[in-house]
Amino acid sequence: MQIESPGPVITGTLAESARTGASIPRRGLVHNRNFVLLACAQGISNVGDFFFTTTLLVWIYDLTHQAGAVGSIWVAEYAPIFLLGPFAGVFVDRWNRRTTMLTADIARAALTLIPLLVAGALRLPAIYVSVFVLGAFSRFFMPAKAALLQAIVPEEQRGQAASVSQTLMAISFILGPAIAAPLYTLVGPTLALAINALSFGVSALCVSLMRVPREQVHPYAYQAQEANSQQGLQLVLREFQEGLTFVRKTRTLLVLILISLLAMLGAGALNSLDIIFVAQRLHSPTSLYGTLMAAGGVGVLVGAVVCGLLGKRITPKAMVSWGVMLLGVGLIVYSFQTIFLAAVILNFLICIPQAGLNIGFGPLIMGVTPGKMMGRVQSVLDTSMFGFSLLSATLASFLGQLVRVDILFGLCGGLIVLAGILSLFLLPAHEGQPETAMVAENAGDLHP
Hints:
Blueprint: H1 10-20, H2 33-64, H3 67-94, H4 97-111, H5 123-152, H6 158-187, H7 190-208, H8 214-217, H9 223-226, H10 232-248, H11 251-280, H12 289-309, H13 316-334, H14 340-368, H15 374-399, H16 405-426, H17 433-446
C-alpha cells in the first residue's frame, strides 16, 4: 500500500480573465482541449512514475536487503521538496507555467536514466542522486501544473476535473506496480527506467500542444516590478514572504497543513517500509509487492468513480475529513495482517476513501487561492506535507531496524485517524471572502 500526497479565488481566476479579456471555456471537460491534453500528460507520466518507483524499491531491496536503504529512497525524493519548497513557487508564479512544465519534463526524461550509466558500488548512490534531481525538477512542475489547471478549468468543473485526475492516477497505480515488479524479475530495471523516460517525453509533447492565452500561463507582468529598486534575491524573498503571509491568514490552508502534518507523518513510514512488511510480516516474495500496490490502485479507481458520481452531494471538506479518518482506521487493521491475500483485499478497501481525500484536497485549495498566488501556495503546502513525510521516512528507516514494522504501522494509523478527527472540527464549511479582501488590500504590493 502506498499513500499519495493529496493534490491541488474563483474570484481571483475569473477576475483576472475579465481584466485580460481571456475566458475559461464553459463546455464539458471532454471538450476542453487543454484539459484533455493536460490529463493525457498526467496519466502517461503517472504510469511511468509508478513503474520507476516500484522498480527502484525492489531493486534497492535486492541490492541491500536493508530497511534503511529502502527508506532512504523516500528521503532522496522528499529532500528537494523540503529544501526548495516555497522558493520554487515564487519562480513558478513569475515564469511561464507551460514553459516551466516543458523544461521540467525534458530534463526529467534524461535524468531518469542516470542509474543505468554506472555499475558496481556507484549504482546505489546513482539511484539516490537520480531520485533527488528528479524531485528537484518536480518542485517546479507540480505547482505550475496546479496553477495551469486552475486557469483552464472553471470553478464549477474542478471537482469533476479532480475526479478525472484521480481516476487516471488510480489506473496508473494499477498498471505501474502490477507490471513493474514482475518485469524487473524478468528483465531487470533497464526497461522500467526507459519507460519512465519515455513517459516524460510524451508528457512534454502533450503540454507543448496546449494553447492557453499568455495571460493565463504567465499572469504576472514583472517588468514594472523589476524596474523598482528591489531586485534579485530581495524581490524573491519579498514574494516568498507574501506567500507565507497569505497562507498564515487563510484558515482553510492552515488547517490543511495541520492535518497534513499528522497524516504525512504516518504516510511517510508506510511508504518507506511497506515492501519490508510484505517480506517480513506477510512472508511473501517482494515480486508480489506490485500486486499489493495494484489492489490499492483498483480501490482508488473505485473511490474516484464513486466520488465523481456523488461529487455534488459530498462537500470537499467531507471527502477530506472522512477520507483521512477511514484511511487511518484501515491502516491500523492492515498492521495486524499476516496473510498476503487478506492484505491485498484490505489494501483495496483502504484505498477507496483515499480517493475521496485526494479529490477533495485540490478544490479546497483552489477555492481560497487567487490564481496569481497558486504557485507559492501550492509550494508551501507541498513543502509542509512532504517535509513531514521526509521526517517520517527518515525516522522509519531508523526505527524499522529496531521496532517491528507492524507496530510502526499501527502507530502511524493512529496519527492519521487523529488528523481526520481534527479536520472535521477545524476545516471551515466555506471560506472565500477573507482571501478576496486580502488580495485587494495587497494589490498595490503585488502589482505596482
